[in-house]
Write the structure tokens for this entry.
Amino acid sequence: MIHILKIVAQRIALGLLTLFAISLIITFGVELLPGDLAEAILGQGATPETVKVFRTELGLDKPAHLRYLSWLYGMATGDMGVSLANKREISELIGIRLSNTIFLGGFAAAISVPLALFLGILAALYRNTLYDRAVNTFTLTSISFPEFFVAYILILFFAIKLGWFPGISNVSTNLSLGDKLYRSMLPAATLTLVVVAHMMRMTRAAIINLLA
């Protein structure tokens, strides 16, 4: 158990370090690009005084390293700033969509994880049989196609031709659980097909190693 917790902690630390490195590269990479953000937003007709005031409002008059440290502190404290597109808090915009993302991920995981374990164990117990070859063909086919292509196929058959599910999933907080599950069925099915393909093959390989 301690070994597993150590591996999880190492993966989390590596993920945070990767995000930190990416943020540094993006921040200082943008500094090397030609042009000025304030002038790009205000347009060529803006006066120098207007551009100067706008740069001050955005904090562009400060050195890049100070802006980065300010952004890093804001991220650590939950202050992600304000969107330049609609002048709303970024944390608010993310929060609106985060619940739907968590719901969709949980819905897909509830289907894919038990299904992948079941199919993977059966494939390992009955390896080199017709069932094993059929499942391996299915998983290889699912892995070879990108997720958006799988989604298009599901929409084509189950939304357009059969009309069983909506092609566009608009999920709001005032919907019942049944309506949310119904509207999220095709996105969840897309994720399920991809996750099952990968997890089933890993489960099959792990069980075969245990039985060897």
The chain has two domains: 2-88, 94-211. The chain has a mean pLDDT of 82.
